[in-house]
TrEMBL record, chain A:
<keyword id="KW-0472">Membrane</keyword>
<keyword id="KW-1133">Transmembrane helix</keyword>
<feature type="transmembrane region" description="Helical">
    <location>
        <begin position="424"/>
        <end position="444"/>
    </location>
</feature>
<feature type="transmembrane region" description="Helical">
    <location>
        <begin position="491"/>
        <end position="510"/>
    </location>
</feature>
<feature type="transmembrane region" description="Helical">
    <location>
        <begin position="451"/>
        <end position="471"/>
    </location>
</feature>
<feature type="transmembrane region" description="Helical">
    <location>
        <begin position="12"/>
        <end position="36"/>
    </location>
</feature>
<protein>
    <submittedName>
        <fullName>Uncharacterized iron-regulated membrane protein</fullName>
    </submittedName>
</protein>
<feature type="transmembrane region" description="Helical">
    <location>
        <begin position="145"/>
        <end position="164"/>
    </location>
</feature>
<feature type="transmembrane region" description="Helical">
    <location>
        <begin position="387"/>
        <end position="412"/>
    </location>
</feature>
UniProtKB/TrEMBL annotation, chain B:
<keyword id="KW-0472">Membrane</keyword>
<feature type="transmembrane region" description="Helical">
    <location>
        <begin position="45"/>
        <end position="65"/>
    </location>
</feature>
<keyword id="KW-1133">Transmembrane helix</keyword>
<keyword id="KW-0812">Transmembrane</keyword>
<feature type="transmembrane region" description="Helical">
    <location>
        <begin position="71"/>
        <end position="89"/>
    </location>
</feature>
<feature type="transmembrane region" description="Helical">
    <location>
        <begin position="12"/>
        <end position="33"/>
    </location>
</feature>
<protein>
    <recommendedName>
        <fullName>Iron uptake protein</fullName>
    </recommendedName>
</protein>
Amino acid sequence: MKGGFRKSMTWLHTWSSLVVIWVLFAIFLTGTLSFFRAEITHWMTPEHHISARAESPVLMATSYLQSVAPFGESWQISLPDSRSPVLGVNWLAEGEERQRRRGARAVIDPVSGTAIEDARETAGGNFLYRFHFELYGIPRSVGRWIVGIASMLMFIAIISGVIIHRKIFADFFSFRPGKKTASWVDAHVLGSVLALPFHIMITFTGLFLLAGTLLFWQGGNERGGQQGQNANRGHASEEQREERAQAEKPSSQREIVSLNMNAIYLEAESLLGQPISDITISKPMTHEAEVTFRGSEKSSLSHFRGGTPEVTYNVKGELIKENFPAGAEGPIATTYGVLRSLHEGHFADVLTRWLLFFSGVLGTVMVGSGALLWSQKRERQQVGKPGYEVVSALNLAGIAGLFVALGAYFWANRLVPAGIDGRADWEIIIFFCSWLACILHSVLLRQRHGWLLQLAAAGLMFLLLPALDALTSPVGLVAATTAGDWVRLSFDFVSLLTAAGLWAAAYFVLSKGRKSRARRNSVSNKKGKV
Amino acid sequence: MFSLSEPWFLTARILAATVGGYLLSMVICLLLLMLTGVDGRDARMLTGMVFFVSYLVIVVILFSVSTHRRAILLALASNSALWTLWYFMGGQL
């Protein structure tokens, strides 16, 4: 292009990102929240808050199962972990066929040892997770194409952004507050460079996961080769099911046999070398009972969906089966597994998950500040022109409006009555209605304190979320602290941090408005004197 | 950066970079699979890893060339050459 290599790259950086920047902002924000998908779902199911941290969950679960399905075909116990502190059980009643995936399900109240009834239906973290890679309300393949194209443009924008910065690390250490455009450039560089490897990794691996859609000519499948693996897994599990069906033929005689669960639990945990995530007991309370303990599925970065490590004991407490899945075969499959794990963050412990989350926040700052930088640079020359006004309205609705919609989504979770039909859909409807209201407000009234109003409204909703949580959950915040329900409390803490950020932004907008008014007044006074 | 007389050239260059770049990355992946002999699931995984990096590099190159005309010709010439090579090597989609 005319004007040299760096100018060409600046043009490419600006336009490749601007075309889809509001979609990218929504993808980055909801994707960042998806690192805590299970945790958000826990917060959004207040009835389950009472289930946090049972003292002896295995014993509690087995005694509950003994009371509801003493001669069930099988029991399954999902133990609390660092991401979801609830104790869940599933069972198949005697003679019941495996029609439903996991049979009847209940979450145990650790105080009474009974099931928690009438837990609300919620879209939870899953809605945000699915939205970040296939949007909502349009065919999935179309959503994936849109997200894929946006991600490719993002990838181009990141690399061209690195190319145009001659002194990328020197620029990183300069911050010039109160300098209008320069301040926005510094904020954009700060968000970009501080987590640059993360931005490159998350964009590339995101594209890679959408390869099944974007690379349709390769005889594709959704999400990059998963179908083949699922087919294999399906085949294997079909065989396993047949095997299990043979083993689970009704026994001629059933008599109550108790298991020394505590002892075999400890042995299994040391054998697996990791915390146990769930337990399956087939033919419980009989001589034929078998107890299978499974570890956490994806605790390492190089796992490759090879199944879960598991050990099985018989009723005498003897080890009868062990299955430690082999790693990926070959360098391509290993690389695939690592890239996939990196994006999804399944391998991450609590600290790494938080680091991924804050890197995602920086990515969101990078995208948001980039959008605002475009407007800021062109404010004097282009204000009033249609292109500039469209971008300004979309900036407001796409950034502040999305925070309003998210706040409304979490409020809807607590205010929409728990028992109504299609409750999860109502949460989503409220999310989109709030966003639509913000879009209309941005189009019609953005000149009248548009940013201030939307930022303040979102800030207020996030500020009051912990109070709403305390008022609408059966467990108060003090009791949650005592019970160690850090998942829920962390959500409340992040809500307060988000509110602080939104209010700081609102204050910035307010003070900027005052300064420009004062400047205009002083100019008109001078003109009056002349 | 662009004079008003060249919007069509700019549009053609953007198309050359996006569509031409996509086709070029596609043929690079097909040739790579042909040369390495990788197939099945491994082929899909390898393609997923290589395609987006090569697409990125091609787009950056096509936007770094000094004139629109050269960029468009480069996209056409490289696509023609590599697709022809792929065809004569016995390539089939």
